[in-house]
Design brief:
This protein is α/β, with parallel strands linked by helices. It has 16 helices and 12 strands. The strands form 2 sheets. The protein has a 6-stranded mixed β-sheet, sandwiched between helices. The protein has a 6-stranded mixed β-sheet with strand order 9-8-7-10-12-11, with helices on both faces. A hairpin with a 3-residue loop joins strand 7 and strand 8. The longest helix is centred in the C-terminal third of the chain and has 24 residues. The structure holds adenosine-5'-diphosphate (ADP).
Length: 379
């Protein structure tokens, strides 16, 4: 099938045309500065018109079979990808308060396609869906129940499409049936999340009500004492100030002065003390969570690294592994240094937990999931 994958952010829209039979990418691009003036498209509808124009000759050769949308928040309703109709679009829209920057953009993207190609099958693939298997003891916060009932305040988890894709590939590489596979999967990109996999399903994950909870990220703080927020509010900072500070001005950027792992590793090697501390904090916090999730899954059969840092930074992987001696984790230094786009084992033969690098590919996962939903709907 030929699937157009749409990933709409608040002010950008990434797209890819993929053939799910050959796994070929026929076209891809990025439209940014949506709604920011300065010659950018006014809204997501106009951005979609630009995508359609850019794809015109490509689609004239071979038309699309479906459009797959990455939707950030599926709330408690969506546990798998669904075929979109008006009711589904409205349901996604009702979740806007839970993902105020992302879901409105997703809805605009869906409506723009509906307007442009009214009969095109569209599929929503949710970033939260893979984590719908979290047990209550993992998703519930220890706060008054009305917060959950009134506002839906609970842990949802994100990066689900990536965690699911990587889990499947890792099980395949180790030749373990995925429904028997226990693992800890570390998605280390600009956003960072760790997922505990038991029997192939997500049973815990480090992001929570929003993608801010958990580990140190590129520009996000991860876990902090919630009293800090109240304290800052009492010092006169607004809710928006605090939101911006924790989401955009924190994490590696705050600790090391920038959020590019490559630059931080180089600076640390050159003796930069801030970069060193940033690496220490980030790897220490990650190692603590990995230890916890190893316990949660009842003993992981693999520790899996993925995304920009996980796939590319041998230094950061080595630093994390060096903190996991208590679990008997041992890397094969040469294997860790290999650069490759293939899933691979990077641990020593006597490591008590195999360590893997498995490249993620959210677009491929969304295209494949969308094709499967459309095929099923055709009976
Ligand atoms: P996003 O969450 O935006 O998709 P990515 O998965 O692309 O992010 O990851 C971005 C991170 O990966 C950045 O911190 C970047 O510095 C890091 N990264 C990319 N390539 C390398 C590399 N060769 N070595 C170290 N870090 C890398």
């Amino acid at each position: 099938m030929r699937v157009l994958v749409i990933n709409s952010g608040s002010s950008s829209l990434k797209y890819q045309v993929r053939d799910t039979d050959t796994n070929e990418v026929a076209a891809n691009g990025l439209i940014d500065r949506i709604g920011e003036g300065a010659g950018g498209p006014a809204d997501h509808g106009e951005a979609m018109n630009q995508v359609a124009a850019a794809l015109e000759s490509e689609l004239a050769q071979k038309p699309l079979d479906a459009v797959g949308h990455r939707v950030v928040h599926g709330g408690e309703r969506f546990s798998e990808p669904v075929l979109i109709n008006n009711e589904i679009t409205r349901a996604i829209e009702r979740l806007n308060p839970l993902a105020p920057l992302h879901n409105p953009a997703n809805v605009l993207g869906i409506r723009a396609i509906t307007a442009k190609w009214p009969t095109m099958p569209q599929v929503a693939v949710f970033d939260t869906a893979f984590h719908r298997t979290l047990p209550e003891h993992a998703w519930r916060y220890a706060v008054p129940d009305e917060l959950y009932r009134q506002y839906g305040i609970r842990r949802y988890g994100f990066h689900g499409t990536s965690h699911q894709f990587v889990t499947g590939r890792a099980a395949e590489l180790l030749d373990i049936p995925v429904e028997e596979f226990n693992a800890v999967v570390a998605h280390l990109g600009n956003g960072v999340s760790l997922t505990a996999i038991q029997g192939g399903a997500s049973i815990d994950t480090s992001m929570g009500f929003t993608p801010l909870e958990g580990l140190v990220m590129g520009t996000r703080s991860g876990d902090v004492d919630p009293s800090i927020l109240v304290f800052l509010q009492r010092q006169g900072l607004s809710a928006d100030d605090i939101d911006t500070m924790l989401n955009k001005e924190s994490g590696l950027k705050a600790l090391a002065g920038n959020n590019d792992m490559r630059a931080i590793v180089e600076a640390a090697a050159a003796g930069d003390a801030r970069a060193r501390v940033a690496l220490d904090i980030t790897s220490y916090r990650l190692a603590k969570y990995i230890g916890g999730y190893h316990v949660a899954v009842g003993g992981a059969q693999a520790l899996v690294f993925t995304a920009g840092i996980g796939e590319n930074s041998a230094d950061f992987r080595a630093l994390v592994a060096s903190r996991l001696g208590a679990l008997g984790v041992k890397l094969d230094d040469a294997a860790n240094l290999v650069r490759s786009g293939d899933p691979r084992v990077i641990s020593a033969p006597d490591s008590q937990i195999p360590v893997l690098v498995v490249p993620t590919n959210e677009e491929q996962a969304i295209a494949e999931a969308s094709a499967a939903v459309v095929l099923r709907s055709l009976g």
